From TrEMBL, chain A:
GO terms for molecular function: ATP binding; GTP binding; GTPase activity; sulfate adenylyltransferase (ATP) activity. The keyword Nucleotide-binding applies. PANTHER family: TRANSLATION FACTOR. The keyword Membrane does not apply. It comes from Allochromatium palmeri. This is sulfate adenylyltransferase.
Automatic annotation (TrEMBL), chain B:
Belongs to the PAPS reductase family. CysD subfamily. It comes from the Bacteria. SUPFAM superfamilies: Adenine nucleotide alpha hydrolases-like. The gene is cysD. This is Sulfate adenylyltransferase subunit 2.
Amino acid sequence: MSSLHEFPATDHGLLRFLTCGSVDDGKSTLIGRLLYDTKTILADTLHAIAATSQRRGLSELDLSLLTDGLQAEREQGITIDVAYRYFSTGTRKYIIADAPGHEQYTRNMVTAASTAHLAIILVDARRGVQTQTRRHSYLAHLVGIPHLVVAINKMDLVDYDQAVFERIRGEYLDFAARLGIKDVRFIPLSALHGDNLVERGERLDWYTGPTLLELLETTPAAHTERPESFRFPVQYVRRPRDAANPELHDYRGYMGRVESGEIAVGDPVLALPSGRTSRVRDIQIGGVSQSSAMHEQSVSLLLEDALDISRGDLLVRPDEAPPTVRELEAHVCWLAETPLSPACTYVLRHTTREVRARVRRITHRLDLNRLEHEPAVQLDMNDIARVSLTLAQPIFPDPYTLNRATGAFILIDESTNDTVGAGMIIEPGASPAP
Amino acid sequence: MSTLDTRTLSHLDWLEADAIHILREVVGQCANPALLFSGGKDSVCLLRLAEKAFRPGALPCPLLHIDTGHNYPEVIAFRDRRAAELDARLIVRSVEDSMARGSVVLRHPNESRNRHQSVTLLEAIAEFGFDACIGGARRDEEKARAKERIMSFRDAFGQWDPKNQRPELWSLYNARVHPGENIRAFPISDWTELDVWHYIQREGLELPSIYFAHRRPVVHANGLLRPVTPLTPAQPGETVEELRVRFRTVGDITCTAPVASEADTLDAILAETALTTLSERGATRLDDHASESSMEDRKKAGYF
């Protein structure tokens, strides 16, 4: 770890993770410590924090000041919005989404979780599993974060006692099993003293597992843990008409990102909704050809046949096409002050496709404190519910648990253009038409 | 034919693919976007990403620069040459024109024009009817930026409301606006200063010469080096020294400070960037020290 900022000799890509926890269980200190121990915080930033800590009469350096960026947050001493932080080790770049812990900010947690591949859930060793712990774990699970790490923090305040750690671990595993959470790891640590974050420390010698950073470094990257189908939503169709360049006369590039799977020149593709098929003639980035493209690459696909394809269409392999549906069952997290109403029509954005949608039925709302279902006729901000939707035009989705890119959607209020809902598809088209 | 593919993109390839995706979303969703190009290193990366996103053929949007009239001539020459090489349409709007119109009034003749760029930008947006402006801001630059969306909504007055931002989930960006409103899109939000330098090196991108170490007269002021120019002359009592310096960030002459450096190649700059103990803005900005929230205040008023 001596050359933290050098260009990685072996580049293990990028890991996006989320930190969540209740107020005061040391989340900001944990992030501050990770940044500090990986030498990401620079001297002037540290001086600014030291000055502010002193001005507020704090005896120690308050590393949490690193993450509170907005005036209102500093005034109130709370974190309102998701903040993104960055650090790099010799081998990986990390993007931290720091979600506020307050109960009313479920929507921020869902936002931060939507792009995360791992979640660190903080538990105060003195308090054990709290309602907030269960909420955060459930949300992380619902939003499909494949790897959960329960960081049992403030071990220094319980004398680094293994029995405390084991008791919390057992308690957590009990409810995790009920929620169907499988991949979960436990680390005892002290963010304040830096035990088990980057350095192992000596006071937790009974713990033989990885440190937090070791765990982050070895977590498999997204898309590499199970086979995936090729999904290519078309973002933009390029037909450059350049009189000076006759080679471009027939150029028709379908631009987009490979959301999952891979594709090679010569492979057959099926275009949806048209149902027409063709083969890949060329794959380009910036006009330069390559023989194949894999998940997460932004490319242009050129096909052998001139198909009528536009933004919002989807290219797939003919033998693994998703269903074409106008009915959906989904979990929806409501994000807006104005409640969700079955009387309203919303714009539903799925990949690059926009259709009109109406909520036909709210099956039940989730009580995030008791983790139980309850009946509901409307959804308020921060509510999560299972709903049935009817769409004005078809979409081509996968279940969210199989594909986060093609299983997710947002709802937009057309009068304000605000993003008002976030949806995760449970079963595409499984419910009978009304 | 689902097979397990355990390959991953390198972090630079991932950042590049992500930025291209964002650029294409702006162009796919918005009717009339513009790409802000100042000749600075972040916008040089942005321009390269736009080439990769949209080649072959012309860029699908014009380049826009808001010129304070106080930029280094090397940078302006570079800006014009790059735009010409790419055969791109370059629109330049000047703070001096806003001053002539009376929409920008300086409190005193020597006041920095930097924050007044917001007015000229809003005037340019109105003049051309741009519904989106693509910029090279990064979240690692400053605390207020760390909380800004990749597609950041601005109302008809160009204002950013940090407490009322549109939720941004997955890669489902919402760039919808009503007439008069505007989206500021930041495709390299998740890049750090070091990522930018690595990308410039990998792609072999050209930069204005003042990014590399050169001799320049400077004075020491408030812990920073202030360049001595006709706009920023030495004050009584200040000692002018000629030092080897380079700029880490390039902007208005009155508010951008160089750092002492011998780094005259990209390799040397990368080595220095990796070892620096000062953040990019901390080391170079003469205007961010006023208060804990000066950037947030400027952004609320329409600043980029």
